[in-house]
Every structure is written in structure tokens, then in C-alpha cells.
């Protein structure tokens, strides 16, 4: 959220009720800031499942294929050794390294893809300048309405959030024109 309206709530239940009510009033670009994971907040915000697992599937397959190919090339093609009557291409012997290469490729690519999808690292955000927002990591629950939300009309949204039980309502970032 680059800019928008922030509202502070004392309890997770009050925040969840406010999110549900705001969604019923047409707000769609909502975000929640909580000091710990709150059960049900993803459903209340209408968030979909992360595409990360599907994005990482090709990396996992490529890592496994690469690990298997390197072993095959070294053991069966480039430097075949007859040890104890074992065939040069022995797939059961390749399983541990193939699995480990799949895990390594997925983990490394997963870190990079996750950082890109989350647009991290973000060292500063306008929400950090809102008075009291530091308590979002201690004991307060915040709802953010993005400035790009078509339903956001600032005076109406401020009134709605106050009626829904917000302790404080503040604007973060640059004003919309």
C-alpha cells in the first residue's frame, strides 16, 4: 500500500468485523496489519491462494532433471565404472542426489520469486509515518484501504471506519488528486 487510509482497532475480532463490513460496502483493496497471525483474515480480505507453488514447479522439475542428468552423464557416459557388477546407469542410486537437487533448486528459486512477488525488500513505506502504527507489531490491529480503491471516498470511509469502532483513522502517503 503506497497511500491510503489506515484505521486502528484494539482486538482482532473488531478488525475482522470491520473488514467484513467494509467488503460488503464495496471496498476491495484492503490490507490488514497485525502483530501475529489472525485466523480468518485471509478469507475476510478475499485473498486467493498464492501462485508460488505453481511458479516453483518448473524449477523443481528442472533441478531434479539437472541432478539426474549430471549423475547419468558422469556415471554412464563420461566415466563408466563397473563396480560390483552394478550397471553404469543405475537409477535407484541416483534418487538421493536427484531429490536433493530438486529441493535445492526449489528453495533458491523460491526465495528469489517470493521476494519479487512481494516486492521486497521495501525498506520504507508511507504507513510507517502514521502516528501509532508502530503498535501494529506489538498489540494493535490495523486495516488499510488502498488509495487506488475505486470505492474510497475519504470522508465517507473515515466515517465508516469510525462507526465500525476504529480508535484512530489516518491517511498514509500522498493525497490523491
What is this structure's SSE topology?
Layout: E1 4-9, H1 12-24, E2 30-33, H2 41-45, H3 52-78, H4 91-117, E3 141-146, H5 154-163, E4 168-172
Antiparallel strand pairs: 1-3, 1-4, 2-3
Helix pairs in contact: 3-4
Description:
This protein has five helices and four strands. The longest helix has 27 residues, at 52-78. The protein is rod-shaped. The chain has a four-stranded antiparallel beta sheet with strand order 2-3-1-4, covered by helices on one side. The chain has 177 residues and is an alpha+beta fold. 46% of the residues lie in helices and 12% in strands.
> Can you count the beta strands?
4
Topology as a string of helices (H) and strands (E): EHEHHHEHE
Shape descriptor: rod-shaped
Task: Give the amount of beta strand, in percent.
Answer: 5-15%
The helix content is 40-55%
Oligomer: single chain
Arithmetic mean pLDDT? 94
Number of helices: 5
Largest sheet: 4 strands, antiparallel
State the end-to-end CA separation: 17 Å
Spatial strand sequence of the major β-sheet: 2-3-1-4
Tell me the radius of gyration.
25 Å
Structural class: alpha+beta
Which residues form runs of ≥5 with pLDDT under 50? none
